[in-house]
Amino acid sequence: WGSMLSRTQEYFFLIDPATGRNRALHLMISPGVLIWIAVLCFYLIGDGLRDALDPTLKNKK
């Protein structure tokens, strides 16, 4: 996904002359959202593992 996102940088300023909108925004959204979801999953897995394996958290409850 990182390489997909990197390749879209050259299209970032590609503006449609008729509407004035960015024509290639959709190329950046999908890999960006997938990277965000992957990071969120790793965060939640790590948080769950910490809760399950950290003995100091069990004593505080």
Descriptive report:
This protein has 61 residues and is mainly α. It has one domain. Helices cover 67% and strands 0% of the residues. It is built from three helices and no strands. The longest helix is centred in the middle third of the chain and has 29 residues. The model has no long low-confidence stretch (mean pLDDT 81).
Observed structural traits:
single chain; 61 residues; mainly alpha; 3 helices; 0% strand; rod-shaped
The residue fraction in helices comes out at: 55-70%
CA-to-CA gap between the ends?
Answer: 40 Å
Shape, please?
Answer: rod-shaped
Structural class: mainly alpha
**Count of DSSP strands:** 0
Short description:
The chain has 61 residues and is mainly alpha-helical. Helix content is 67%, strand content 0%. The radius of gyration is 20 Å and the shape is rod-shaped.
List the helices and strands and how they pair.
Layout lengths: L1 H6 L17 H29 L1 H6 L1
